[in-house]
Amino acid sequence: MENEFKEKRKSERFKIPNAKVKYKKTSLLTSRDNLSPACPLLNLSA
């Protein structure tokens, strides 16, 4: 039951060791304060 959902991606997922990501929070005004804290990136695909 580990992977009960079928992957629909055309590209395979891959890992980047120790990678972190920040995302922009939605706001009317743009500033550096609108960025999230750095979060670990588990895997990614095209």
In short:
With 46 residues, this protein is low in regular secondary structure. The protein contains no helices and two strands.
Description:
It is built from no helices and two strands. The chain has a two-stranded antiparallel ribbon with strand order 1-2. The protein is elongated. By secondary structure, the protein is low in regular secondary structure. The mean pLDDT is 80. It is 0% helix and 9% strand. It has a domain at 11-25 and 32-46.
Element-by-element helix/strand order:
EE
Helix content: under 10%
Q: What characteristic shape results from the CA principal axes?
A: elongated
State Rg: 15 Å
Largest sheet, described in full? 2 strands, antiparallel
Distance between the termini: 26 Å
Low-confidence stretches: none
Average pLDDT level: 80
Percentage of β-strand residues: 5-15%
Q: In total, how many beta strands? A: 2
Structural class estimated from helices and strands: little secondary structure
What is the topology, as strand order, of the major beta sheet? 1-2
Number of helices: 0
Secondary-structure topology with pairs:
Elements: E1 20-21, E2 39-40
Key structural traits:
46 residues; little secondary structure; two-stranded antiparallel ribbon; 2 strands; elongated
